[in-house]
Structure formats: C-alpha cells, structure tokens
Amino acid sequence: MTMINRKQVFLSLAVALGLSTSAQAVDLMGVYELAQSHDAEIRAAEQQLNAAGESPVQARASLLPTVSASAGKTIGSSTTTIAGTELDSEDSDTENWGVTLRQSIYDDANYGRLDRSRAEFSAAEAQYREAWQNFLFRVSQRYFDVLTALDSVRFAKAEETALKRQFEQAEQRFEVGLAAVTDVHEARAVYDAARARVITAENALEDARDALREVAGAWFENFARLAQDIPLDMPEPSDVEEWVARALDFNPQLLQQRSQVDVAQADLRIARAGHLPTLGLEAGYTDFTNNEWVGRDPATQEPLGSATLENQGWEVGVTLNVPIFSGFATQSQRHQAGYSLRAADATLSATQRSVKRQTETAYRAIVAGIQEVEARRQALVSADSALEATNAGFEVGTRTIVDVLNAEQRFFQAERNYSDARHQFILNQLRLRQFAGVLEEDDLTWVNQLLTD
Fold first, then answer.
1. Is 204 in contact with 416 (CB distance < 8 Å)?
2. Structural domains in the chain, sorted by start
3. What does pTM read for this prediction?
4. At CB < 8 A and 24+ separation, what contacts does 75-80 make?
5. What would you measure as the largest C-alpha separation in the chain, in angstroms?
6. How far is CA 53 from the centre of its chain?
C-alpha cells in the first residue's frame, strides 16, 4: 500500500472516529481546570492541610493563660421537730461566683509540643505540595494516556484495513491461480491478529477515557493532539547536578522527611522535659452571699428574723512541681525518643539518596528520549520505504506475501513506537520537574501549547 493510500486510510478513520479538525476538542488545560474542582485526592489533601494548621494553635494554647468562671445559686428550707414540738422553719438563699486564672510560667514540655506542632504543619505543607504536584502530573499522564490510546486505535484500524486488503488480494490471486493457498492462510492469520489488536486497542482507549473521567469528572470525545513537530530541547539548566541540587532543596518528599526529623527532635525535648521542674501561677477571685430566715409570721408569712453572710476575696499562688522518681518511665521515654530521632535521620538519608537517583534517572530519560524520538522518526521513514520496496518486489515476484505482511506490520509498529516516544518525551519533561519539586501549572501551559486540534 502506497503512502498516499495509507494517508487516505488514516483520514477516513479519523473522520469515522469523530476526530475532524472542525470538531470541538478538549485540551490539557481544559481537563486541568475541570479536575481542580473535581479530583478527590487533591481536595482531601487541602482539607488535611487545613486540619494540620490547627495543631500549632492548640499547642500555643498551653503557653497562654486560661480563664474560667463559675457561678451558683442554692435555695433551701428546713423544719425541726423536738419531742413533738415543731420549731420555727429556717429558709436559706445562697449565691456565689468566682473567676480563676491559670498561667504556666515554666514547663519545657509545652515548648516542645509547640515545636512539634510547627514541624508537623511543615510536614503537612510539604505533603500538600507533593499531592499538588502529583495531581498536575496525574492529569497530564492520564491525558497523554488517552492520546496514546487514540493513536493505538488509529494505527490498529489502519493496519487492519491494510492487512484486510492484502488478504483479499491473496484470495483473488489464489482464485486466478497466481498464488498458493498458503499465501491466503498467511494473510488470513495476520489479518485476524490485526482484528484482535483493534479490539484490544479500543478496550484500552475506553479504560484511558474512564481514568481521565475519574480525575476530571467529565467524558470527552475529542482531544487536542500532540503536534508532529515538537521541540526536542535539553532540560534547562542542562546540567544534571543542578537538577539534583534543586531536588535536594525542593523535593516535597525530602521536605516532609526533614520535618519528620524536626518532629522527632521535638519529641526528644518533650521526653527530656519529664526530668525538669514545672512552675505555674494561679489567681482567683470569689464572691459568696448567704441569706437565712428564721420563723414566719402566721398571718403574713414574712420572716421573723434574718441573717446575711457575705464574703469576697482573692488569692494568688505559684506551684512548683519537681519530678523525683516515676518508675523509670521518663528515662525510658527519653531513650525511645532518641531511637526515633536516629531512625528519622536514617530515613532522611535514604530519602536523599532515592531522590538523587530518581532525579538523575529522569534527566537521563529526557536525554535518551531526544535520541529515541529522532531514531523512531527515522525508523518510521525507513519502514515506509521498506514497505514500498517490498510491495514493488511482490508485484514483480521477488518478494512473497509473507514479506509484504511483515513489512506492513513493521510499518505500523514503527508508527506506534514513534507516537509513544513523543508522548513519553513530554511526560519525562514533567516527571523531571516533579522529582525536582518545581512542577507548576505553567509547565502544563507549556505542554498545552504543543497540542493542536
């Protein structure tokens, strides 16, 4: 099949799939804008960050005074009977209220808990940063997964059409005695395999669309595709060591682990505070009033006598607590916190090595990707030339039907490989920035500029 015929096949398939340039196509930024308000993972990360922001407020409360107030009112009546004689009744009415202020003057554990809460919030900020960058990459990857699946369907259907034509030609040649029945069987087997690949590709496309809908909350039919000519530029800066330095400064996983070391240090401070004295201040004011009435006039029911007791006063005091012995619990807690700190330091070292390796791998993937895209492009050109030459050889009898079928398959495989390489090159650019901790919305805007309807 000539290049012109293949292009006609591709165009007819694109129209059949609803991919005409006049159709409204969604692009990466369109999906991203929808996903911002729909993606459950990023919304959960936002709420987790908000929740973590309350921890420093609560920890700081232990350093501030607490003020409480209380009030009460009690009424009562009692009657006393002695030897059958009822004495005058006694009524009472008691009111009291008070205000108490408590202030920690020195408790090093409170400062440790404040340090811990701040470190936990820093870790939560880094965790949200990681979730945000994962979100940006997840949206991009799922978008390009759809583009890859669309190309796979397009190539599979074009391959099916081409191999069907070869099968039909083999049958025609067999019927007129120009080909053996084995040629028909060979063509039929390859054609059936191509039909199976179409089914597999269409199923993969539906899966990719579903995965994108999971993020964006909408089903899309038409997509802006990656332009044929994309810039195959080296990362900027073009020094892998500079990217590693960025990653060591900004990678969210690394920032989280550094914060976890700070948390462990704060825990050790809290544990050590168990050996230290604490000093607290307490001040209060109370007001007490008690009214009592003895006997009542039988006619008017007015009290015959009364007494009132009033008391107002304030007090201020300090309390010093000195720990002496707690059954070795405090010492054990200090040891436990020390072990946890050493574990956090070891985990930080492991994370640094992992981030460095991942960043270097991502950088090398871009460098290799530049060469791969160029190589895949040249392989596609070569596969097209080889197919035309094989077809020509088949027409003059120097090539067999098997040669033609193999050349057809190699051509369409070259198409798939070239498409995959271009998509992976773009994703590798984003992946490097993700590992370096500098992936931003502007990077998606840059990718979006490489798309075309």
1. no
2. 3-62+107-276+323-452 (1.20.1600.10), 68-106+279-322 (no CATH)
3. 0.83
4. none
5. 142
6. 18
